[in-house]
Amino acid sequence: MSLVINKAENLMKMVTQMKQIGRDLFLRGMVNSHSGNMSVKLDNDIYITRTRSMLGRLKRDDIVKVTLLDELPKKTLRKASSETPVHIRIYKETDAKAVIHAHPPYAVLLSFFKVQHQIAPIDSEGKLFLKEIPIVHEEDDKEKRAQKISEVLKDCQIVIVRGHGSFAIGESLEEAYMYTTTLESSCFFIYHLEILKKEVGHEILY
Residues near 67 by Cβ (< 8 Å), separated by ≥ 6? Predict the structure, then answer.
């Protein structure tokens, strides 16, 4: 009985945190009204947001249970986020316990202009937590896309899909959220520093 109670309590805590993080993502402008998704791994299951759900106003019915052991029923695939295959592949290939897929504006913007396949933060927090952020190309094939993203996340905590958004992993949703917001802050600094360098007319020390 205690195991059942503990599992129920863990689920309640998870749902509460998903609602909080979802609201924060929306208020920070990391997702629009119906974009983005996130998931948490509990044992051999993941709990992922429903397709086209509003992360800023999540309800319990917006969180879908998906097993990692068996092939997914078509009904579940239709209901769960369209990014579910990517989340599943990440959990199978890494030690992640939580995944956040967001659309941070400055990170997406810079991904178009970086010829090299990475963004190097210039701010101290970005350097401390992220070092270099890989950029991968978007893939039409969902399997190739999931494979490429999960492969990169074996060696880092966050990756940018060019022109699309970021995938962050962590021991918890809070940690994945930290990497997501740190990425966006770093990209904000890079973008505005380039503008300031042109306006000021001389090199800025950093």
Answer: 44, 45
User: Which residues share a beta bridge with 118?
Assistant: 134
Predicted structure pTM score: 0.91
For 118, residues 6+ apart whose C-beta sits below 8 A from its C-beta are 132, 133, 134, 135
The terminus-to-terminus CA distance of the chain in angstroms comes to: 58
pLDDT digits (tens, 9 = 90+) for 80-102: 999 999 999 999 999 999 999 99
* Residue 5, both tokens: 């109670």
- 171 vs 113, which has greater pLDDT? 171
36: amino acid identity, one letter = G
Active-site positions? 83
Domains and CATH numbers, the chain: 2-200 (3.40.225.10)
Residue of 62, 60, 80, 83 whose CA lies nearest to 72: 80
Question: Hey, is 168 helix, strand or coil?
Answer: strand
- In angstroms, the CA 131 to CA 77 distance is 35
